[in-house]
């Protein structure tokens, strides 16, 4: 449908202008009603959206009429921190009208995420995750949500479910293993998963660093450093990756190289569990600097994964 295409391609403003020129008969279908509501919402014309969704019935899309009415109600009021009982009542009605139908709940979940209705989207995505065809999308949304909130326990649960759904996807396996090691959750299994991920994708940087981190926690730091040295420094410029490299190099006594990787994380947003690892790396460096040991020899430059230039 043309309106749908225009809404999805940044032309919602043109849709709104077009609506005013169309006869009412051409706006009476359910599909058109939904697209008109989406256009009003996209351009944030809340009064028009309220009027458009206030009355009438949209057949099988009635739940969307009520949902867009809820959106208009929520967005047209300043965020005071107080409960918006009218919005909550309308959204609850929209969910009830969805009647547990997976496709409708998926549409509502996407709407809730788009408009940042956190509580509503979280509950809907968990319900959507129960339906196999839409499980992956739901779990990925929940993964982003909990990662953004740094709710690591819930994030771990989501990663477990993703791994159960896609056990052969090495990056997911590595993410689950790494978070488990950081949390001290299912440690033995986390070490096993780290190796599985590395065996499947040894050249994938997250898989390699996760296995190196696992080895270091098992006291096999020399093997861990060898894995790091097998990666190009270009792969390690990412601040999240740099945290793990800095820790491993600090444990190996490669002070200058470790400091260079710590510098990559300066002014960058990293996760709370990575902040702890960075503190651990800095503590190791302070100890190494305060009590230099003649047993630690310098690593040849060609073997050390020290970046030649730091990204800005």
Q: Care to count the β-strands?
A: 0
Q: Which whole number gives the mean pLDDT?
A: 88
Q: Rounded to an integer, what's the Rg over CA atoms?
A: 26 Å
| H/I helix tally | 17
Shape field: elongated
Major sheet characteristics: none
The H/E string reads HHHHHHHHHHHHHHHHH
Low-pLDDT runs: 293-304, 308-312
N-to-C CA distance: 45 Å
**Helicity level, as a percent range?**
55-70%
Strand content: under 5%
Give the class from helix and strand content and strand pairing: mainly alpha
Could you describe the 3D structure shown?
The chain is mainly α and 312 residues long. It has a domain at 232-291 and 298-312. Helix content is 68%, strand content 0%. The protein has helices spanning 2-8, 12-19, 30-42, 46-53, 62-75, 85-98, 102-114, 118-128, 132-149, 152-165, 170-183, 187-200, 205-217, 221-229, 239-251, 255-264, 272-290. Helix 4 (46-53) packs antiparallel against helix 5 (62-75). Residues 293-304 and 308-312 have low confidence and may be disordered.
Features:
312 residues; mainly alpha; 68% helix; disordered C terminus
Could you give the topology of this structure?
Blueprint: H1 2-8, H2 12-19, H3 30-42, H4 46-53, H5 62-75, H6 85-98, H7 102-114, H8 118-128, H9 132-149, H10 152-165, H11 170-183, H12 187-200, H13 205-217, H14 221-229, H15 239-251, H16 255-264, H17 272-290
Helix pairs in contact: 1-2, 2-3, 3-4, 3-5, 4-5, 5-6, 7-8, 8-9, 9-10, 10-11, 11-12, 11-13, 12-13, 13-14, 13-15, 14-15, 15-16, 15-17, 16-17
């Amino acid at each position: 449908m043309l309106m749908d295409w225009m809404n999805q391609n940044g032309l919602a403003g043109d849709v709104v202008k077009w609506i005013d020129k169309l006869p009412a008969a051409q706006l009476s279908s359910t599909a058109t009603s939904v697209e008109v509501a989406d256009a009003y919402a996209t351009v944030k014309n809340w009064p028009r959206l309220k009027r458009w969704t206030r009355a009438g019935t949209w057949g099988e899309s009635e739940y969307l009429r009520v949902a867009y009415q809820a959106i208009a109600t929520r967005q047209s009021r300043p965020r005071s921190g107080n409960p918006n009982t009218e919005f909550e009542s309308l959204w609850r009605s929209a969910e009830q009208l969805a009647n547990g139908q997976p496709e409708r709940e998926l549409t509502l979940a996407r709407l809730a995420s788009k408009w940042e209705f956190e509580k509503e989207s979280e509950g809907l995505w968990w319900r959507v995750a129960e339906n196999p065809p839409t499980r992956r999308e739901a779990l990925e949304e929940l993964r982003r949500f909990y990662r953004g909130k740094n709710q690591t326990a819930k994030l771990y649960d989501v990663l477990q479910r993703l791994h159960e759904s896609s056990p052969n996807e090495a990056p997911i396996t590595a993410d689950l293993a790494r978070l488990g090691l950081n949390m001290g959750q299912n440690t033995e299994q986390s070490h096993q998963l780290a190796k599985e991920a590395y065996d499947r994708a040894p050249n994938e940087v997250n898989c390699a660093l996760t296995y190196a981190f696992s080895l270091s926690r098992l006291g096999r730091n020399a093997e861990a450093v060898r894995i790091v040295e097998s990666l190009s420094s270009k792969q390690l410029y990412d601040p999240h990756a740099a945290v793990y490299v800095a820790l491993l190099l600090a444990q190996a006594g490669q002070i200058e190289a470790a400091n260079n990787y710590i510098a990559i994380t300066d002014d960058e947003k990293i996760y709370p569990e990575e902040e702890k690892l960075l503190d651990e790396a800095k503590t190791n460096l302070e100890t190494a600097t305060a009590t230099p040991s003649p047993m630690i020899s310098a690593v040849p430059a060609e073997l050390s994964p020290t970046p030649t230039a730091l990204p800005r």
